[in-house]
Amino acid sequence: MTDQPTEPPADDLACTEEVEIITDYLEGALPESDARRLERHIETCPGCTEYLDQMRTLAGSLGDLREEELAPELRAGLIDAFRDFHRS
User: Fold this and answer.
1) CA 28 from chain center: how many Å?
2) CB-side neighbour CA atoms (13 Å) of 86
3) Does the pTM exceed 0.85?
C-alpha cells in the first residue's frame, strides 16, 4: 500500500478561488451551491480553514467601525491596497 495523495474532487475549489469569495461567504451573499463547495474545501484544507478563522476574527473586530472614524489617510490607504490586491 502506498500513501499517494488523493486527487481533489472535480468540483473542489482552488485556494486562490477561496480567498476571492470568502467575503461573500461571510456576508451570506454567496450562492448556496458555491457556499457548499467552499465548505467542502475548507473541511480538507487547513490553510484555508485558518484563513477563514482569521477573516471571521477580523470582521468581528471591525464590525462596529464606522467610516467616519477612520483618518482620511488611513481610509485612502486601505482603498488603494484593496484596489492593488484586485489588480494582481
Assistant:
1) 12
2) 6
3) no
Closest CA to 56 of 15, 79, 22, 19: 22
CA 61 to chain centre: 16
- Chain position carrying cell 451570506: 28
Q: Which residues contact 83 (CB under 8 A, 6 or more apart)?
A: none
| pLDDT, tens digit, 9 for 90 and up, residues 13-23 | 688 888 888 88
CA-atom Rg of the chain in angstroms: 17
Euclidean distance between CA atoms 40 and 12, whole angstroms: 8
- In single-letter form, the type of residue at position 23 comes to T
**DSSP letters along the chain, please?**
---PPPPPPTTPPPHHHHHHHHHHHHTT-S-HHHHHHHHHHHHH-HHHHHHHHHHHHHHHHHTT--GGGS-HHHHHHHHHHHHHHHH-
